[in-house]
Structure formats: C-alpha cells, structure tokens
Amino acid sequence: HQKMNALYMDNHGAAVLLEQKNATPKVLAKMIHDFYHDSDALGEMAKSAARVAKPDASSRVAAYCMELCNG
C-alpha cells in the first residue's frame, strides 16, 4: 500500500516516487540538489500535497472499522 500511496502522490505532482532499487546516493544527492535549487517546483509540490491531503484519513478508517465491528 505504501507504493500505491507514493504513486498517487507522484501522479498528482505532490511527490516524486523513487523506488528503493533506484535510491542510490548519487540519485538522492541529485534530487536534493535539484529541489534545493528550484524552490518554485518545491513550492508547487507542497501546494499539490495540500490539495490531495486527507488529514482525517486515520479517523475515517477507525470509524469504518468500528462500524464493521458493531455490525
């Protein structure tokens, strides 16, 4: 489920998906460098993350579980 969440965020411009097999020190350093030097892109990513955020997700899941338990 973590990869699906990351893919969703990536598809909506709210993150960059980096699979573990590709997460080398060189790749990570380039990503950090690029974000550091492109604050506009990082700002847009933050805005996208705010748009797709579900801050009440854990409460909603808990409520659903309680409904299932209570029939």
The largest sheet is: none
SSE pattern? HHHH
Number of helices: 4
Gap between N and C termini: 26 Å
Q: Residue ranges: pLDDT <50 for 5 or more in a row?
A: none
- Structural class, from secondary structure content? mainly alpha
- Return Rg in Å: 17 Å
Give the overall shape. Answer: elongated
The total strand number stands at 0
Task: Provide structural commentary.
It is a single chain. The protein is mostly helical. The chain has helices at 2-11, 25-37, 39-52, 57-70. It has four helices and no strands.
Summarize the structure.
The chain has 71 residues and is mainly α. The protein has four helices and no strands.
Which tags fit this structure?
0% strand; mainly alpha; 4 helices; 72% helix
Topology:
Layout lengths: L1 H10 L13 H13 L1 H14 L4 H14 L1
